[in-house]
Amino acid sequence: MHATVREKLILKLIGDKGFVAFEEFEREIRASPATIRRDLEKLAIAGKIKRIRGGAKEIASSSAEMSNGVNFNAHLTGTPFYENIEKNRSQKEAIGKAAASLCSKGEGVMIDGGSTTLQMCPHLAGLELQVLTNSLHIVSALIGQQGTRVLVPSGAVFPEQNIILSVFGDPGMPRFHAPKLFMGAASIGEKGLMQADIVLVAAERRLLAQSEEVIILVDATKFGGPSGNVVCELDEIDTIITDSRITDKTAKMFENAGIKLIIV
Amino acid sequence: MHATVREKLILKLIGDKGFVAFEEFEREIRASPATIRRDLEKLAIAGKIKRIRGGAKEIASSSAEMSNGVNFNAHLTGTPFYENIEKNRSQKEAIGKAAASLCSKGEGVMIDGGSTTLQMCPHLAGLELQVLTNSLHIVSALIGQQGTRVLVPSGAVFPEQNIILSVFGDPGMPRFHAPKLFMGAASIGEKGLMQADIVLVAAERRLLAQSEEVIILVDATKFGGPSGNVVCELDEIDTIITDSRITDKTAKMFENAGIKLIIV
DNA sequence: CAAGTTTCAACCATTTTCGCTCATTATTAC
DNA sequence: GTAATAATGAGCGAAAATGGTTGAAACTTG
Fold first, then answer.
1. Which residue of A has its CA nearest to B126?
2. Distance between CA atoms of B185 and B122, rounded to whole angstroms?
3. Fewer CB within 10 A of the end CB, N or C, for chain B?
4. Which listed CATH number (2.60.120.10, 2.60.120.330, 1.50.10.10, 1.10.10.10) goes with A3-58?
5. Mean pLDDT, to the nearest integer, of B194-203?
6. pLDDT tens digits, A119-149
7. What span, in angstroms and rounded, lies between the C-alpha atoms of A193 and A200?
8. H or E element, residue B156
9. Chain A residues in contact with chain B using a Cβ-Cβ cutoff of 8 Å
């Protein structure tokens, strides 16, 4: 059996079942264990699959166990990302549109990555913004827009999250300072804004340091969610845009913290 | 059996199954293995098929192979860039492979954007390189590779060329310094290396300033091409990788300029 | 936490495949 | 008909892929 055939078969098996045990590969593929292992390693290095002890699984399911954070990685492989996009889609669209309407023509803004902030992008066309973002998803969403200037910081690309993050400790984009920062979140509550992934935390803190007005985009399912890593306290947040499913109690809590609430 | 008949048969077999093992060619074609190999090589050079060890497969899945990252190219479909990828494709693949073999494990390198340098990327998997690039095409080709670290400079995204270029005049990535720079070209001749687009010139001069060894990847159709903007003189170039269609006269000219020539 | 089991990666031997050279055969030109 | 050129076939050394073995690492169980 030839290498290309084995490769296709492996990808097919994993595509079907999500996870495939090594034993199953041995059964399905007419080749020695050593060869199968080599194939798996090659595919893992190429980023097509993820090897785990006892077999191999698709890339996507690795981020599914990253619990409920904004799933950037899924954008790479397809289905789970679209699930995430579809989740609360109409709310996210409305939130994104409202966020876009806060931008003035020609302004410079920063946009953090996430499935909610991503929904801003279609509405930014024609505003002639200068957008600084560290998210490659945002870059790809904005790159075709005429008149929108996209800026990125220097740094290393983190493929799991698809963001650019300077590893030197410096901001990576020293000369840019924006009045507004649009940011998503895994969850938000009394203790502040939280992300599940610490890489995202590091990235977002960089952006926070360079911004004046912080605007958070979250659908109402994110309130009081599971614990995570605190990105910032509530008093660093200026505005929250969310949907109407927010409870009065939660709304009151944010208003007491001095946060402006926009409900769409 | 006549050459033209064999050729048609080969293309038919590959068209049907996608991948055909060499053994199968031997069975279907009444000719010696040596002849079949020669036919395959001819077709591969012509860009009709793709040879791989153990047989040959169809050329398809050009971007599918490397598009497991974010799609920065949606706005570029139908542009000259895609035509360029197909032009002299097999030569570019061979050149890219040779260029990749110059990299040592764990090394830090810079890769300029272009349809030829893009062909390096699949061969870089597993080398655990630190790659600095200003080309989003290169980023998306490398982003899925486990172990390959991708670095980008800060700056504005130029959508026409899909590159990141600092508009402040600074290098955008001050702390990175790489031993090797891999670069393409629109044409190259006695006056030096040339690009048609002045944005590319600006971007490449930044990279040149941070590199020690400059390696140029050009297929042989680029020699003595049309006039353009000079990126650098010949004496700044250390190595040129090209295909065997280079003329003796041109080869002599480069060697006289002290350039090491690698012909694939 | 210790013993036992499973899984894995690294190593080496074997097989397969490839590119090169050279001899042979077919084709063309004169 | 003969010479010259191109195409084909065969053999050989090098490179790549594969298979098997072994010792280490990770996980499990008592």
1. A45
2. 20
3. N
4. 1.10.10.10
5. 89
6. 999 999 989 999 999 999 999 999 889 899 9
7. 12
8. strand B155-158
9. 2-5, 42, 44-48, 75-77, 136-137, 139-140, 143-144, 149-157, 159, 162, 164, 168, 172-173, 175
Which of A1, A2, A115 should one mutate to test binding to chain B, selecting the residue with the greatest count of B CBs within 10 A?
Answer: A2
pLDDT in tens, B221-259: 888 777 788 999 999 999 999 888 888 888 889 989 999
- SS3 at position B240: strand
pLDDT at residue number A171: 66
CATH no., domain B81-263: 3.40.50.1360
Q: 0.90 cut: is pTM over it?
A: no
Domain boundaries, chain B: 3-58, 81-263
| Nucleotides of chain C touched by protein CB (<7 A) | 6-11, 16-21
Tokens 């289905």 belong to residue: A79
* Residue B61, SS3 per DSSP: coil
Q: Check whether B201 has a pLDDT greater than 80.
A: yes
DSSP H helices, B18-160, are 22-28, 33-45, 80-86, 89-101, 136-142
Q: Under an 8 Å CB criterion, which residues of B touch A?
A: 19, 21, 52-55, 57, 68-72, 74-75, 122, 125-126, 136, 139, 143-147, 149-157, 159, 162, 164, 168, 172-173, 175
Q: Do domains B3-58 and B81-263 have the same CATH topology?
A: no
Instruction: Compute the half-sphere exposure of residue B19: CA atoms within 13 Å on the CB side of its CA.
Output: 14
Looking only at the bridges linking them, the beta strands covering A55-58 and A49-52 are: antiparallel
